[in-house]
Design a protein that fits this description.
Length: 359
């Protein structure tokens, strides 16, 4: 999974990226360039399996984040020209809610809802520019050859253009599977799932639900499809990153926070894209693998290796909770909770799977 992080300047966007990925915070000044980093998906099940199997290696699922340069008002079109953003599966928009005399807001005041709508509009305008350029080429092609596929593609693009002109993002537009196929290869940013991460002060994050409601962000997040919302405080997360696990947990408890804010960002990114994890376990490695919800067993095998997918015979499957209760695969066999599934079995989150295959 690849997620692009966008936002206005001075939102704490790059700080959040550094906390998520462990990358150093960039020095002030200089020409901003996209940065790429990897974050581990928090999953206590990997640690629990390691306690049973004592593997040589533990490997969690990962998310690739791309930190984009800050986007000022009127600069959204530049995002389309950044190759690093074209292949992302979703966008994280970091929105500033905290006050700071040291770091002034580029718009002169703090208004999270205004900023969320502003960048949404920048994405819409960027997509309009992309569509208009493509429509010009299609019109020229149709005048020359009038091919049926060009005519069909033009109809889809005109439909989207009209929708965008109403200042609505493409993620809210219902399209058929055939129409979606025609869009593959185009960097249409407003069609990507959007996670709004609201960067708050320590005082705000203690009452985050109230802040989200009062600013109107809770309502904005449910206005359309493919949006999600979570609150973090980058300064708090930076402070907790310097503490040991026990001290960090005590700090969170004092603030009334149930989980680390960074874990919440990663987990919500995962959920927004409809992703789940299945697990493999053995003496060599315990590992979590990322798949889309609804993936069948043979496709899931391909995430490990194409040879396993091609030579798939059966999948030995046990639910994580059943395995932990039983304490071993052998005990699961005796309890009949370990079962054999065929290629069309729909994998569930937390399935522990051993694939049988023949190359």
């Amino acid at each position: 999974m690849k997620v692009g992080i966008i936002g206005l300047p001075s939102t704490g966007k790059s700080t959040l990226f550094s906390l998520l990925t462990g990358a150093p915070t960039p020095a002030p000044g200089g020409r901003p360039e996209p940065r790429v980093g990897i974050a581990r998906v928090p999953d206590p099940r990997v640690e629990a399996l390691a306690g049973l199997f004592h593997p040589k290696k533990k490997t969690p699922a990962t998310v690739e984040y791309v930190d984009m340069p800050g986007v000022a008002k009127g600069e959204g079109a530049a995002l389309v020209d950044l190759p690093a953003l074209r292949g992302v599966d979703a966008l994280v928009h970091v929105v500033r809610a905290f006050e700071s005399e040291v770091v002034p807001h580029p718009e002169g005041s703090i208004d999270p809802l205004r900023d969320a709508r502003m960048l949404e509009l920048e994405l819409i305008l960027a997509d309009l520019g992309t569509l208009e350029r493509r429509l010009e080429r299609l019109e020229a092609n149709i005048k020359k050859a009038n091919r049926a596929e060009d005519v069909a593609e033009r109809a889809v693009f005109l439909k989207m253009k009209a929708f965008l002109e109403g200042e609505r993002p493409l993620r809210d537009l219902e399209l058929s599977e055939d129409e979606r196929r025609k869009l593959r290869g185009y960097a249409l940013l407003s069609g990507k799932p959007l996670l709004l991460v609201i960067n708050m002060s320590e005082e705000q994050v203690k009452r985050s639900a109230e802040v989200l409601e009062k600013t109107g962000l809770s309502g904005f997040a449910i206005e359309g499809a493919g949006r999600a919302l979570c609150a973090v405080s980058a300064p708090i997360e930076a402070e907790m990153a310097q503490l040991g696990a026990e001290d960090a947990a005590a700090f969170r408890e004092d603030l009334g926070l149930h989980e680390p804010g960074l874990d919440r960002v990663i987990r919500t990114s995962y959920e927004l894209l409809g992703l789940i994890s299945f697990l493999t376990a053995g003496e060599d490695e315990c590992r979590a693998w990322t798949i889309r919800r609804g993936t069948r067993a043979q496709q899931a095998a391909g995430e490990i290796h194409s040879d396993i997918e091609r030579g798939f015979i059966r999948a030995e499957v046990v639910a994580f909770d059943d395995l932990m209760r039983a304490g071993s695969m052998a005990a699961c066999r005796e309890a009949a909770t370990l079962r054999l599934e065929g290629k069309d079995y729909v994998v569930r989150d937390g399935d522990v799977i051993n694939f049988r295959f023949n190359v």
